[in-house]
Amino acid sequence: MLVILNPLRPEGCILISRFHMVALLIFLTSPAVSEAADFVGQVVVSDGDTIEMHGTRIRIWGVDAVESPQVCFDKVGKNVRCGALAANALAGFIAHQTVSCTELSRDRYRRPVATCLVGGVDIGEWLVKSGWAIDYSKYSNGRYAEAQETARSAGLGNWAYAWQYPEKFRACLHTKGGKALKCSQQQL
What we know:
By secondary structure, the protein is of the alpha+beta class. It has helices at residues 18-28, 31-34, 82-94, 123-129, 137-140, 145-154, 166-175, 180-184, and strands at residues 2-5, 13-16, 39-41, 44-47, 50-53, 56-60, 63-65, 72-73, 79-80, 99-106, 112-118, 121-122, 133-135.
């Protein structure tokens, strides 16, 4: 028997067997307890703010990236496939590293919405800081607003082009029956 002092108990101590102490230590140091991530592994990038791991599509929390079919326009008005650029930038950043994601909620499609890390870096923050996504403030409460302003001021990622906010692009496609090119041309 081991004696553990416990100031919360009137007797001041608890008697615990060695077996129970070992079992408690194993439980407290197990990966399920010590690592809070719900998903850990290699990923495939679906688009600028969605990854797939172990067959599960995971939406990156707090950011909104241009959609895959969305285009941006360079300074002379030429179409640029900015949705593909964002997805490719994310795939290059992750580059076959292990990603760990902690689920925060589910979206309307029942996908996990999660904060994800690669090499200790918050993927959402990296996306916004690099200009490939915006701070989705209605969900993030401005968590990435400063990173967004830095990227916008420096003309990084999509900020180098004329483009439509993803939420407005999606609304155009769904409510107005628009085509990708037409919905991409709306003003910010």
